[in-house]
Design goal:
Four copies of one chain form a homotetramer.
Chain A lengths: L4 H10 L18 H19 L6 H8 L3 H7 L3 H24 L5 H18 L1 H13 L7 H22 L8 H19 L8 H14 L6
Helix pairs in contact in A: 2-3, 2-5, 2-7, 3-4, 5-6, 5-7, 6-7, 6-8, 6-10, 8-9
The structure holds a DNA duplex.
DNA sequence: TATGAATGAGCATTCATTCAT
DNA sequence: TATGAATGAATGCTCATTCAT
C-alpha cells in the first residue's frame, strides 16, 4: 500500500517546483530516453550497492529514479539486465578514467602508475562501484564470466603492449606478460574488495604508493 | 509432498538396502550430534557455494545431508547461522592447513612461502570455500565485518612477528609491517577470488611461484 | 501451482465468460481500492469465522476474494492487521445498526430495548461476527484489550447517559450505572457467545423478550 | 537444540536434590501413572491458558511437567486430546466446587446463590480456567459442542429441579425453566469471559452481589 | 508511452507427531 | 516405559514481473 511516498520523492527526483495548491503529484515528465536510462542506471547502482543484488527492490530503484515500476521494465527486460547494465556503465566510466590518466603520460611506467592510481582513486570516490563488482562476482558466476573479468580480458591486448614495451626497454623483468599483468590485476582486485570490508582501513589512494612500490620492487631487500 | 526424491537419496543416507517394492521411504537414523553437524556443514558449504547464499534452499541442504528440514533447524537456529558456521568451519580448516605447512619450516621466508602455498593449494582443492568467502563478503557486509576479515585481524599478531623477524634479519625491506602484510593479503585475496571467475585461468598453485616471486622481488628489473 | 481452483472462481470475480477450451485463467481485474478492500474484508470475515484465526489460510481468503495472495498484502500489512480490520469493520456495522434502532424511539427504555434487540438480530444474521469476536478474545488478549471491549469502553458515555436518564426518571433502580450497564453487557456477550455454541438453541431474537424481561424485572416474583 | 534447559527445569519439576558432582540431569523418576497424568494436566492447563491452544508448544508442556515430549504422547494421543482432558479436569473441579457450596444450604435460593458465588470465586482464583473455556470455544466449535456446553447440558436436570422448586414455592416467576436457567447461564458465561478481557475490571466475586441482585429483582424499580 | 495494481512462485521457519534407542 | 532426535507438512510473507488503464 505504498501510495503516500510519492510526496516524499517528488522532490528527490527532479527538483520540479510544484505550483501552490497543486496536488503533490509529480508532473508527468517528458525526458529523453537517454536521460531516463542514465537516471535509472544511477539509481540502480546506488540501490544495488547498498542492499546487494538480491535484496535490492526494483520498487526502490524506481522510486529513486522517480519513475513507475513499469517504466523500469520498459528500459530493462529484467532486474538482472538492469544490474548488468549498471555494471557495464560503471566499467565504462572506470576505464575512461584510467585511460585519461594514462594518456597524460608518455613514459610507459608512469602510464601504468597513473592508470592504477586513477583506478584506486575512482574506487575511493565510488565505493558503490566496488560493491557492484562483488555482487556480480557473488551472484552471476554460474551464469557466465562476470563483466568485470570479461572487460579485463577485452582490455588485455591494450595493456599487454604497455608491458611488452617495458620489458623490451629492459626495465621490467622478462617474465610472461600474463604473469605480470595478472599479478597486478589480482593485487588491485584484492585491494579494492577488501578496502570496504574493514571499516578502519585507510582509503586506497593512501595505500597506493606502498602497494605499487611492492609490486615494482618487491618486499625483499634487493640482493 | 516431496516423496519422489527419496529414491535418489535412499543410498546416500545410510546405505540401507531397500527391498524391491518396499516403500522408498528412508528409515529414520540417529547419529551423534558431532557427525550430524559435520554432515550438515559439508552439505551447507556445497549448496551455498553452488547456489549462493540467497538462492540456496534449506531444503536442498537437508536433502544433501540426508535429513529432514527440521533437523537442520535443530542444529542451527537460522539459515544465516548455518551459513556463518559453514564459513567458520572452512576458516578453521584453512588456518590449520596453513599453520601446518608453515611449521614444517624454520626459515622465516620459507615459513611464509609454505603457508601461502598451502592456502593456494587449499583453495584449488576447495573451490567452494572461495565461493563462501565471496558470498559472505557480498551478503553480510552490512551486518558487521565478515568472518574472513575478522579472522584475518585475529591472525595479525601471529604473522606480524614473522614479518618483523624478516625485517630484523635485513632480508625484508624496512617498510611498515602492515603495508607488507596487507599487500600480500590483497594479492592472495584477489588471486583467490579471481581464480574461479575465469574458467580458463590455471589453478592457483601453478601461478603461485610467479605471484610470490613478484611479491618478493617485484616486477621491475633490479636496478 | 493452484490452478485447478480458478475454474471455480472464474465466475466469482468479474462475470467474465470464458470460451470453451480457453485456459481457465482468470483475467486480471482492476477495481477501486474501496471495492477491493470491502471484498477482502468480507472474505476475511468469512474465512476467519469458519476456520478460526490461526487456521485461516491467507491463500483461502485471497481465493475467496478472487485476488492473488499478494493483493491481500497490498491492502493489509499482515494477517493480523487484516483480522483486526475485519473486526473493526464488523463493529462499525454493529454499532450503526444498534444506533439506528435506538434512534427510532424517544422513550429511554424503548431506546435501550430496541438497541439490544437490534444487536441480537445482527448476531443472528451475522453469526460470523460472533465468531470473530471470540477469535479476537482468544488470540489477542496478550496483545492488548480486544477491539470488542475497547469499543465497548468508547461507547460507555453515550449509553451511560441513557441509563442515568432512566434512573433520574425513577424508572430504573438507583444502582451504580456501571453495575447496570455491565450486567446487561455481560448478559448480551454471554448470550451471543453461547448462541452459536449449542446447535439446538433458538436464535437470539427469539430469546430476546425473555432475556430482556429478566434483566428488567428479575427472575423472582415481585414481593 | 534445546539441551541446556533441563538444568533449569530440574528444580522446577520435582524438587529433587541432586547429589554433589552428579550431572545436572533429572534422575529417572518413577511415578504412578495417575500422578504423572495429574502433573501433565496441570502443566497443560497452565501453558494452554498462557499461550492459547494453537501457540502452546507441546515441548513447553513437557518441560513444565518434567517429562520428555514422548511421554506426553504416551498419556494423551494428541495435543487436542490433552487439551480436552485439561478442560474436563477443570470442569470436574469447578462442578465439585459449585456442588459443595450449594449443598451447604437447604433453602433453594441460597443453594443457587451459593453455587454461582462459588463459581465466580473459582474463576477469580483460576483465571486460566476461563482462558481454557475461551480457547475451547474458539478452536473447537467446528468439531462438536465444546465440553463447557456439553457439561452444562448434562447438569441441566440437576439444576432444573432446583428452579422448579423455586417456582413451585411461588418465589420464582412462572417462566419456562430453560429461560430462567439460560438467562443465568449467559450472565455467568458473559461475566466470566469479559472479566479477564479488561484489565481494570474488579474481580468477579466483588461484582457478584450486584449481578445476582439484578438477576433476581431486575434493573427496574418495582412497580 | 507510463503507470502501479495485481499476481503467484518461492522460501524460511515452526511444531505436532513418530520412532529408534 | 521413557526419551528426545528426527521428520515434513503447513503457512506467512516477499518481490520480480505482467498488464489493464
Amino acid at each position: 500500500m505504498r501510495t503516500d511516498q510519492s510526496v516524499i520523492y517528488a522532490f528527490h527526483h527532479s527538483g520540479q517546483v510544484l505550483e501552490i495548491g497543486e496536488s503533490a503529484k509529480v508532473r508527468r515528465t517528458r525526458k529523453t530516453p537517454e536521460e531516463r536510462r542514465r537516471e535509472l542506471l544511477a539509481a540502480a547502482a546506488s540501490v544495488f550497492a547498498r542492499r546487494g543484488y538480491r535484496s535490492a527492490d526494483v520498487q526502490e530503484i524506481a522510486d529513486r529514479a522517480g519513475v513507475g515500476k513499469g517504466t523500469v521494465y520498459r528500459y530493462f527486460d529484467t532486474k538482472e539486465a538492469l544490474f548488468r547494465a549498471s555494471i557495464a556503465n560503471q566499467l565504462d566510466e572506470l576505464e575512461t578514467c584510467a585511460r585519461q590518466a594514462r594518456d597524460r603520460h608518455t613514459d610507459p611506467l608512469e602510464r601504468l602508475r597513473a592508470a592504477i592510481r586513477a583506478v584506486f582513486a575512482y574506487f575511493d570516490g565510488h565505493p558503490e562501484t566496488v560493491e557492484l563488482f562483488i555482487q556480480e562476482r557473488a551472484e552471476f558466476l554460474h551464469r557466465g564470466v562476470p563483466l568485470y573479468f570479461l572487460r579485463s580480458a577485452m582490455r588485455h591486448e591494450e595493456w599487454a603492449s604497455e608491458f611488452r614495451a617495458l620489458i623490451a626497454a629492459g626495465r621490467m623483468r622478462d617474465m610472461p606478460v600474463d604473469a605480470l599483468m595478472d599479478g597486478l590485476g589480482d593485487l588491485v582486485y584484492g585491494a579494492a574488495l577488501s578496502s570496504t570490508a574493514s571499516p578502519h582501513r585507510p582509503c586506497l589512494v593512501d595505500r597506493f604508493d606502498q602497494l605499487f612500490e611492492i609490486y615494482l620492487h618487491g618486499a625483499l631487500v634487493q640482493s
